[in-house]
Write a structure and sequence with these properties.
Layout lengths: L2 H8 L15 H22 L15 H21 L20 H13 L12 H15 L20 H29 L18 H5 L3 H10 L1
Length: 229
């Protein structure tokens, strides 16, 4: 067996992971999507099977129905045509950006989940995917070596964002909150007439510290201060 054949055999496990540069796994992708689309439709029909259909059976025969479907297909064909000018991230010959083909499990999971339209604004609006998001956050923390056991501190936590830009913005938002928290706590103590004294290992009474000192406390010191207050 040649070196090329041996190298190819050693990478066989990659074959089902991607749609492929030539869409070699198109049948696999199509069959799975159809299977879970049908599963989703069955779920909708069985939430309240006693309810009559809101869309009439003969709606598809009406002119306005066909006109809308025609416009929708026209727009989708136009979108599909324009998308053909996209960068071919899926092809191993393309190395212009730090991107590659999508993993089939992730791609399918995203498309299937979109049908359920979860909204992570509250756990009531996303009872399943919000829990999965937090689970993935813990998995990522564990992968990078952070402690995820709540019995030990500090314990990592996190969640999934839509991308690196939002993650960077969010990290700055948290840093701002940490920097301003001691200042806000000092003003609240002053207004309430409460003097906690020298806490959290600070060199002076908390309410007498100047803004520069409080704004430059370390993250660990701020967390300790919050706990002791």
């Amino acid at each position: 067996m040649s070196d090329i054949e041996q190298a190819t055999d050693s990478l066989d496990w990659l074959n089902p992971l991607f749609l492929g540069a030539y869409a070699e796994n198109d049948t696999l992708l199509e069959s799975i999507l159809v299977e879970f689309l049908r599963d989703h439709c069955y779920w909708r029909r069985n939430v309240h099977p006693e309810d009559p259909p809101l869309i009439p059976v003969l709606a598809a025969d009406r002119p306005e129905y066909r006109q809308f479907v025609g416009r929708m297909k026209t727009e989708l064909h136009g979108l599909s045509a324009r998308l053909k000018n996209s960068a071919p991230f899926y092809n191993p010959r393309y190395i212009g950006h730090m991107a590659s083909d999508l993993l089939l499990p992730g791609l399918i999971a995203q498309l299937v989940t979109t049908l359920y339209n979860p909204n992570h604004v509250t756990d009531e609006a996303a009872p399943v995917t919000l829990a999965l998001e937090l689970e993935v956050g813990l998995q990522l923390a564990a992968m990078f070596g952070f402690n995820t056991d709540p019995r030990h501190t500090p314990c990592a936590w996190g969640h999934v964002t839509s991308g690196g830009t939002l993650a960077n913005d969010e990290s700055l938002w948290y840093l701002r909150a940490v920097r301003y928290w001691p200042l806000a706590a000092r003003e609240a103590c002053r207004e309430a007439g409460f003097d906690p004294g020298m806490i959290a290992g600070l060199a002076d009474d908390f309410v007498s510290l100047d803004g520069w000192t409080l704004a430059n406390l370390s993250v660990d010191r701020t967390v300790l201060l919050r706990r002791e207050l």
